[in-house]
Amino acid sequence: MKIPLIITLYLISGPVSCFDVIGYSGGSVLIYCRAKQYGGNPKYFCKKPSVQCVYFNQIQNTWSHRDRWSLCDCSEGLQVIYRNLSLQDAGSYQCGEAGVWNQDVNLKVNENPCCLGPKSVSGYLGETVTISCSYPEEFKRDIKYLFKQAGQYFTPVMDTTATQRGRFSISDDRRSAVVSMRISEVREADGGVYYCAVWTGIGSVSYYSFYTETQLRVTASTAPTSVPPDEDHFSGTSYKQSSSVIILSVCVCMVLLLIGGSALIFYKIRHKRHQDTDRSPGTQLQDIKEWAVTYNTAAL
């Protein structure tokens, strides 16, 4: 069981070197402390000038966590992760092994417009996405890294010593001070939180500075899956053609109705004229006589 204990740290005598560690507001640092006389005593990391430090009872090569700190007594040396830095975190720290050795660390926390975050990048399954980070001038000649956060830890993904690894590629544009990582054929498992980082090795104390956080969101395509683009285009064309045919048919029907109606009227007028022409003068006179007789009879 890992139980953090608050005890008083008695600093060992002798000259102590001080190492600068540069972090950025909102970012994190992963500090490695090493010593030749590295032993099995409890390890610590604390802020000075206070002599109150937190020790972790822990098994070697396992991590212990307290607030924003994580500590590992690893085979590579003492490793300390300090997360979510703020300007108030700047100051003098000490890492070491109780009663054996220690190293002084001067933590500087900077604010730089290039390193503000977090940012968000979205992509669809199977597409290519790019995660880009600007970096400050002091990192221009350093090796750049992309890490993916996994819970409390950081897993390296790519660095600028190799340009291509499978679906991942990286480039460093020093003129623009931008490092970019491209992920082709992006998968759902690629989603998560990524950090750009640099590595600085300075003897007994070395560190990664994680300075820009990017959230990658991978989603399914929003394009309709039932109708491919070509098929959708074909459907639209068919719809337009059908509309044109309907309009043309209506126009033809109206023209035919007009022609038919005109022909019928013309036929009736002509037929009537023929009837009037076919009646002889005698027939017309007989009609007049019959009308006169009918009129006289009615008058009597």
Sequence-ordered SSE layout with sheet pairings:
Elements: E1 4-8, E2 18-24, E3 28-33, E4 43-47, E5 52-56, E6 63-66, E7 69-74, E8 77-82, E9 91-97, E10 101-110, E11 119-124, E12 129-134, E13 144-150, E14 153-159, E15 164-165, E16 168-173, E17 178-183, E18 192-202, E19 205-219, H1 229-278, H2 281-299
Parallel strand pairs: 2-10, 11-19
Antiparallel strand pairs: 1-5, 3-8, 3-19, 4-9, 6-7, 7-8, 9-10, 12-17, 13-14, 13-18, 15-16, 16-17, 18-19
Structural overview:
- With 300 residues, the chain is α+β, with helices and mostly antiparallel strands.
- It has helices at 229-278, 281-299, and strands spanning 4-8, 18-24, 28-33, 43-47, 52-56, 63-66, 69-74, 77-82, 91-97, 101-110, 119-124, 129-134, 144-150, 153-159, 164-165, 168-173, 178-183, 192-202, 205-219.
- Strands 3, 6, 7, 8, 11, 13, 14, 18 and 19 form a 9-stranded mixed β-sheet that branches. Strands 2-10-9-4 form a 4-stranded mixed β-sheet, with no helix packed on it. It has a 4-stranded antiparallel β-sheet with strand order 12-17-16-15, with no helix packed on it.
- Strand 16 (168-173) and strand 17 (178-183) form a beta hairpin.
- It starts with a strand and ends with a helix.
- The model is unreliable at 1-15, 231-235 and 291-300 (pLDDT under 50).
